[in-house]
Specification:
Elements lengths: L7 H26 L4 H31 L16
Helix pairs in contact: 1-2
The structure holds zinc ion.
The site of zinc ion has 6 residues, from helix 1 and helix 2.
Length: 84
């Protein structure tokens, strides 16, 4: 496993990003299995909200990396999709 970058802000943003990603994936799974009707609409809203949160977390992480340059060479291939 790649050593974790020491930047604390990066770690915080990465944790938020990874958590938002998990929620997004779970939301998409629920949506995939949801039957038509109210249950689908509810699952759709949940997945949509999770996607918005994920996109926001991703933008914040990308902005931090661009501004700070703290991780670009440490884990270029698995920055957003670590094998965990
Ligand atoms: Zn940083």
């Amino acid at each position: 496993m790649t050593p974790a970058p020491s930047c604390i802000d990066y770690r915080k943003l990465k944790d938020l990003h990874d958590a938002a990603r998990r929620v997004y994936i779970e939301g998409a799974k629920v949506l995939e299995g949801a039957p038509q009707g109210q249950e689908f609409e509810s699952a759709y809203q949940t997945a949509e909200n999770a996607m918005v949160a994920f996109v926001s977390a991703r933008e914040k992480l990308e902005k931090h990396i661009a501004d700070h340059g703290c991780v670009e060479l440490l884990e270029p291939n698995n920055l957003y999709f670590p094998l965990v």
